[in-house]
Design a protein that fits this description.
146 residues, alpha+beta, five-stranded mixed beta sheet, two-stranded antiparallel ribbon, 7 strands, globular
Length: 146
């Protein structure tokens, strides 16, 4: 898989990794969407490190782009923003980090005047993550705890 840089701290490989053994290669449009998403992830990383981190804390993406086959295999929604490269599931170390990431992204949106599509605080058992999506247009600013 390609190690192409989408931004200073994120690669195409990182945003297309998957736990299933199915090809997961995005097209040009999906790669452009991943670049847009990575701009937000870079801002999140920068703010987190400025406010709470030790200066080099990474933002870890559990899931980014998903091909239709991968999305189906992992039980993703048929209309998931992952299918278009517009979403990332971000690993967190606990509830506090989950909430702080969400607040940082809300602040970035408010300050920049740019909207996002989804900011979902998700949990399955003891595992929590932040689902964040930004589309090229038609963003809904949907915020939920799931």
């Amino acid at each position: 898989m390609n190690t192409e840089r989408l931004s200073p701290h994120f690669t195409l490989r990182e945003l297309t990794k998957t736990s299933v053994r199915i090809e997961n290669v995005p097209g040009e449009k999906e790669v452009e969407n991943l670049r847009r998403l990575c701009r937000w992830l870079e801002m999140l990383r920068s703010r987190w490190n400025m406010m709470y981190g030790d200066g080099e804390d990474p933002i870890v993406v559990n899931s980014g782009y998903r091909s239709p086959a991968v999305n189906k295999a992992v039980g993703g929604a048929p209309t998931s923003n992952h299918l278009t490269g517009c979403a990332a599931d971000i690993r967190v170390s606990g509830l506090e980090q989950l909430l702080r990431y969400a607040v940082i992204l809300l602040d970035i949106s408010d300050e920049s005047g740019e909207d996002f599509d989804e900011l979902l605080l998700e949990r399955k058992g003891a595992v929590m993550w932040l689902h964040f999506a930004v589309r090229p247009c038609g963003n809904r600013r949907k915020v939920r705890m799931i």
